[in-house]
């Protein structure tokens, strides 16, 4: 969601994918404070902020209205017996607070029932909107039909740092123990930059992929769907980090409009068919997003996370690692490197704001490797490795909408130019014959 917080120094595809081969080739290129290739060390505190907003109109109840509660009961109510789904929405309101309130109203337009629990943790702060009681702490509770997010809704947990891993884990633990279900979905709501999500403006902190993975681990019933209603989170690295702790990930390669997902039709679909699988819910989210934004630069994809797990021999993770190993072998030619450099440059700058430095590092996996394998002069071993990457990549995608057809296919990774520079500096290669 815009405005986004952007990284000063983006990690490469090697960070999350734990490629020993690439780390051995490029590991000497480190920052002074944290290893550049240590993806988990990328901190939201190293990110810059942009204050622009993408705004578009949709009709909601007046944000200044004081609508009466209808059948209002907060987090202290007797929870449902085991439901089919519990949908958890982690809303770090920050300077998107107006949109957090709008999305809360979208959730309430669907409302919980005996089959589907909708639970929210909403953080508000001073200086944003004064609507619905102008409260400025953090509250959590069940969202029933026609609830509004005033000070009578839910239960206050004080002022929480939404960018703290313990805050997220507390919400997930509370949700899954209080509102038990056969399946769970978690939506990370707020700002994103590809590496961190759900920023807290007060603390200037965000949730990293490793923190999200820890919050999801150890649950008696695993989370089935993880979604990022935020900018730029359609990252292979990010999805890989959580792949062992969820089944489906939904995220956008591109910037999202500030109003984000349209929750009402998504949840009405789920209530109409509460026995949806994780794959079906992920596909529904993507389809409804495409209907909400039929034109523009929007992208959204649902990813089968089992196709990114290191334990899966045919996973995208292992395919990229094998490509890296092949790239470092003595069969690699100078033409191979120059061709990869060419396609990397062609498909960089495709995502986000092209005047930002981070845009130089984001590449669509499908576009990059498709362009590369279609060059007749590249070496056979590297072509075969690249084709394997493409096969694994395509098998991971369960549903996608791409309004930017030219720019994207479905999912991207970080491929800084420094990777090729470092490779040339540390590896002896032959020239093309």
Derived structural class: alpha/beta
Mean pLDDT: 77
**Count of discrete alpha- or pi-helical segments spanning 4 or more residues:** 13
Main pleated sheet = 9 strands, mixed
Rg = 22 Å
SSE succession: EHHEEHEEEHEEEHEHEHHEHHEHHEEH
CATH-derived architecture of the largest domain: 3-Layer(aba) Sandwich
Assign an overall shape.
elongated
Number of strand elements = 15
Helical percentage: 25-40%
Termini gap? 48 Å
Task: Give the helix/strand layout.
Elements: E1 5-7, H1 13-17, H2 20-26, E2 47-49, E3 83-92, H3 97-110, E4 116-123, E5 138-142, E6 155-156, H4 165-178, E7 181-189, E8 196-200, E9 205-208, H5 209-216, E10 225-229, H6 236-241, E11 248-251, H7 263-272, H8 278-292, E12 299-304, H9 316-327, H10 334-347, E13 362-364, H11 365-373, H12 380-396, E14 397-402, E15 412-414, H13 417-426
Parallel strand pairs: 3-4, 3-7, 7-10, 10-11
Antiparallel strand pairs: 1-2, 4-5, 5-6, 8-9, 11-12, 12-14, 13-15
Helix pairs in contact: 3-7, 4-5, 7-8, 9-12, 10-11, 11-12
Structure description:
This protein is an alpha/beta fold and 433 residues long. It folds into 2 domains: 8-41 and 310-426, no CATH class; 49-308, 3-Layer(aba) Sandwich (Rossmann fold), CATH 3.40.50. Helices cover 33% and strands 18% of the residues. The protein is built from 13 helices and 15 strands. It has helices spanning 13-17, 20-26, 97-110, 165-178, 209-216, 236-241, 263-272, 278-292, 316-327, 334-347, 365-373, 380-396, 417-426; strands spanning 5-7, 47-49, 83-92, 116-123, 138-142, 155-156, 181-189, 196-200, 205-208, 225-229, 248-251, 299-304, 362-364, 397-402, 412-414. A 9-stranded mixed beta sheet has the order 6-5-4-3-7-10-11-12-14, with helices on both faces. A two-stranded antiparallel sheet has the order 1-2. Strands 8-9 form a two-stranded antiparallel sheet. Helix 7 (263-272) runs antiparallel to helix 8 (278-292), helix 9 (316-327) runs antiparallel to helix 12 and helix 10 packs antiparallel against helix 11. The chain is elongated, with a radius of gyration of 22 Å. The protein starts with a strand and ends in a 7-residue tail after the last helix.
């Amino acid at each position: 969601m815009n405005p986004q917080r952007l990284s000063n120094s983006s990690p490469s595809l090697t960070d999350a994918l734990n490629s020993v081969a690439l780390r051995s080739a490029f590991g000497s290129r480190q920052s002074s404070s944290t290893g550049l290739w240590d993806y988990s060390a990328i901190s939201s505190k190293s990110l810059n902020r942009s204050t622009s907003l993408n705004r578009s109109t949709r009709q909601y109840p007046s944000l200044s209205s004081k609508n009466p509660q209808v059948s209002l009961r907060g987090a202290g109510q007797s929870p449902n017996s085991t439901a089919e789904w519990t949908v958890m929405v982690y809303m770090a309101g920050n300077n998107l607070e107006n949109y957090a309130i709008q999305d809360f109203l979208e959730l309430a337009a669907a409302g919980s029932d005996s089959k589907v629990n909708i639970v929210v943790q909403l953080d508000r702060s001073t200086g944003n909107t004064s609507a619905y009681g102008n409260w400025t702490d953090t509250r959590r509770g069940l969202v029933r039909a026609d609830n509004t997010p005033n000070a009578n809704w839910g239960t206050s947990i004080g002022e929480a740092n939404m960018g703290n891993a313990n805050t997220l884990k507390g919400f997930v633990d509370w949700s899954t123990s209080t509102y038990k279900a056969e399946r769970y979905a978690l939506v990370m709501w707020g700002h994103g930059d590809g590496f961190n999500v759900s920023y807290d403006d007060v603390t200037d902190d965000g949730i990293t992929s490793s923190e999200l993975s820890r919050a999801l681990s150890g649950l008696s019933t695993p989370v089935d769907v993880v979604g990022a209603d935020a900018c730029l989170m359609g990252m292979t690295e990010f999805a890989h980090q959580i792949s062992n702790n969820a089944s489906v990930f939904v995220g956008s390669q591109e910037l999202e409009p500030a109003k984000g997902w349209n929750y009402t039709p998504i949840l009405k679909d789920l209530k109409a068919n509460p026995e949806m699988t994780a794959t079906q819910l992920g596909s529904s989210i993507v389809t409804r997003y495409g209907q909400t934004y039929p034109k523009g630069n929007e992208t959204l994809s649902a990813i089968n996370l089992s196709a990114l797990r290191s334990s899966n021999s045919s996973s995208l993770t292992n395919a990229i690692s094998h490509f890296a190993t092949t790239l470092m072998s003595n069969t690699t030619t100078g033409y191979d490197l120059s061709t990869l450099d060419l396609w990397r440059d062609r498909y960089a700058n495709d995502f986000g704001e092209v005047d930002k430095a981070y845009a130089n590092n984001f590449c669509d996996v499908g576009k990059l490797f498709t362009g590369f394998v279609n060059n007749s002069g590249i070496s056979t071993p590297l072509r075969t490795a690249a084709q394997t990457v493409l096969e694994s990549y395509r098998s991971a995608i369960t549903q996608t909408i791409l309004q930017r057809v030219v720019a994207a296919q479905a999912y991207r990774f970080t491929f800084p130019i420094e990777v090729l520079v470092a490779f040339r500096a540390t590896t002896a290669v032959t020239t093309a014959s």
